[in-house]
Design goal:
The complex is a heterodimer of chains A (about 210) and B (about 200).
Chain A lengths: L1 H9 L4 H23 L8 H20 L5 H30 L1 H6 L6 H23 L10 H4 L8 E6 L7 E5 L2 E5 L6 E5 H9 L3 E3 L1
Antiparallel strand pairs in A: 1-4, 1-5, 2-3
Helix pairs in contact in A: 1-2, 2-3, 2-4, 3-4
Chain B lengths: L3 H12 L9 H23 L9 H37 L5 H4 L4 H20 L19 E6 L4 E4 L5 E4 L4 E5 H9 L3 E3 L4
Helix pairs in contact in B: 1-3, 2-3, 3-5
InterPro entries (chain B): GINS_A, GINS_bundle-like_dom_sf, GINS_Psf1, PSF1_C
Function (chain B): Required for correct functioning of the GINS complex, a complex that plays an essential role in the initiation of DNA replication, and progression of DNA replication forks. GINS complex seems to bind preferentially to single-stranded DNA.
Main location (chain B): nucleus
């Protein structure tokens, strides 16, 4: 797949643009992989998605100018389909987490894009309604919905495969049950660690999940 | 025993072989009735005067409060899990759910479904540039640009974005762009023919 990407994106006439389009695609791919593997919802990459969507529109126009039977046209269109899948799948993965951990995400809403936040609010209010209906039928003080009981929090202690992009300046401390271990993280090193130990680094893109 | 009916309700939902079993309103009502009796006892106990010699209410009240909480928890879990199933089906089947599932939904659930669809539509309209982005497409990673499909139902003419017109009559086979027929495959109009 990466071969095709090279072929496709380097073929653009405007060289400078090709570089940005390519790096944006790379960033989105990373964001997608991270989002799929991460137990919690990560800071949103809405600007990237937006840029990529514009790119797609533009590339689509370029493709239309090619002959339909042209091999390049087929390859380009295939690539476009893949990028679209990537973006959709990425947004879907986020949506799934937003829905499942809705109350928890609502408390940590800084990671959401404005559209996602609007959706979350709508989703929360509509999903509380059926539960509230049920509670209303309860007699006495039990007939109240306890917001604490509704919250589902992601398991931040879940183990993840992590790979570092950079040499980290500080060592990280890995808690594993009673044991505690201090590790120095160098570029490209890989490890299985509980997510909570590297949470801040994943969130600011210094460590990626694999 | 208190709480028996509630756990039964949940077990039934889990064990049911149906994709989406009917909302068991009778049982829900029975559970609520049980709760009413429990609550009555608690209220009576609260209004009686406290006398350490004769008052043996305390243990009874505690047990009944616990039973009430448990019933409530079970009922909420029942409803919540049903909504999760509905949500999953909404993604699988699109906004129009099959009639046999619709028949099993409670009124609250029908309302919930409509609102959920609307919320999703709103969200998809607001992302991805001017035309929005339909997240219902591309549920599987794309393999081929074109796929071979067989038409299972009489559908009539279908015009593609490119302007080509296909006549989808029953049992006809076509070679079409995947992105444009995905929806029809999900609706059961077309069937993807997989040679491999």
């Amino acid at each position: 797949m990466s071969n095709l990407e090279d072929m496709f994106l380097n073929e653009e006439e405007d060289d400078e643009e090709a570089i940005t389009a390519k790096s944006v695609l790379e960033m989105i791919t990373d964001a997608w992989v991270n989002e799929k593997l991460c137990p919690e919802i990560l800071p949103n990459k809405a600007e990237l998605v937006e840029v990529m969507m514009e790119q797609i529109d533009q590339m689509e126009e370029n493709v239309l100018q090619l002959q339909k039977t042209d091999l390049r046209s087929i390859i380009h269109r295939q690539e476009l389909e893949r990028i679209r899948y990537l973006i959709r799948s990425y947004l879907r993965a986020r949506l799934e987490k937003i829905e499942f951990y809705s109350v928890w995400v609502f408390k940590n809403q800084s990671v959401l894009s404005p559209q996602e936040l609007a959706y979350l609010k709508e989703y929360l209010s509509l999903s509380v309604a059926p539960l509230k209906n049920l509670c209303d039928r309860f007699p006495g003080p039990a007939g109240q919905l306890n917001p604490k009981q509704m919250e589902i929090a992601p398991d931040l202690e879940a183990h993840v495969f992590a790979k570092s992009r950079v040499d980290l300046p500080d060592t990280i401390i890995v808690h594993d049950g009673p044991r505690e271990e201090e590790i120095t993280v160098t570029k490209d090193s890989q490890r299985i660690v509980p997510y909570s130990c590297i949470r801040q680094y994943v969130r600011d893109d210094r460590i990626k999940l694999i | 025993m208190w709480g028996d009916k509630a756990i039964e309700l949940i077990k039934e939902l889990e064990r049911s072989s149906e994709l989406f079993p009917p909302f068991d309103d009778d049982k829900v009502r029975l559970i609520l009735e049980e709760c009413r009796v429990l609550n009555q006892f608690i209220e009576d106990a609260m209004s009686s005067t406290f006398d350490p010699e004769t008052n043996n209410y305390l243990a009874g009240v505690k047990a009944r409060t616990a039973a009430l909480e448990r019933n409530k928890r079970c009922l909420l879990a029942y409803q919540w899990n049903r909504l999760q199933t509905l949500k999953k089906m909404r993604w699988e089947f699109g906004s129009i759910l099959p009639p046999e599932i619709k028949a099993n939904m409670s009124e609250t659930e029908v309302q919930w479904c409509t609102k959920y669809s609307k919320a999703l539509a709103n969200y998809m309209k607001n992302i991805g540039g001017r035309n929005g982005l339909n997240l219902m497409l591309d549920m599987q990673p794309p393999k081929d640009l074109y796929i071979e499909v067989r038409c299972l139902k009489e559908y009539g003419k279908l015009e593609l974005d490119s302007g080509e017109v296909f006549n989808l009559s029953e049992n006809s086979q076509h070679y079409m762009p995947r992105s444009q027929v995905e929806n029809l495959i999900r609706l059961g109009v077309l069937e993807h023919i997989n040679w491999s």
